[in-house]
Amino acid sequence: MRISAVLFDVDGVLLDSAGAHRKVWDAWSAARGLDPEKVWELTFGRRPEDTVRDVAAHLDPAAERRALDRLLAQEMGDIQPVEGAPGLLESLSGSPWAIVTSGARDFVEARFAATGLALPAVQVYGSDVIHAKPAPECFALAASRLGVPASECLVVEDAPAGIQAAVAAGCVPVGLTTTHTEEALRQARACVASLADVRGLLTGYGFGGGRHRGRP
Q1: Out of 9, 16, 50, 158, which one is annotated catalytic?
Q2: What is the pTM of this model?
Q3: Whether pLDDT at 38 is above 90
């Protein structure tokens, strides 16, 4: 197997944002008379507007997305990098990597800047594609922008929808068990518990520090 690039999801992978997002979705659900638990289960790895379509078809997804963004802005200070994220991203300087998220550009750029995380040249957001995760379009777009075959892209994801998208795109998915169990991420090629484990996996492929054409 040849790994020539790595693609990271953001929430739950590089940013520890589950607590903030849970507050937002619980408040939104309560205000609209919806079951918070059922709504929460449909949020992972997906664009907020897509979740709204599934749980409240009578509401305007665009308007609700704006409302959710306003709620999230109040929780921004509580969102910090996942342990090991700064060092891992620094180790990839000079190597092809990207972020592929269902989130919003403004939110990600603001949190990366505030926490000192490096942003890659290639960034794919939910607004960049017609069909977001679990569709494969986002990962295919990132691979295309990097100029690397999807089959040579290792994807780090914490949500079933993201793993499903990576598999459909023909990438090599690795599940990070920060928000879901290994069983929930069973479609992944492998599961790891931390970004330190991801770093070790990439080192095994000879990836990082500009060495990005390794084989295990």
Answers
A1: 9
A2: 0.91
A3: yes
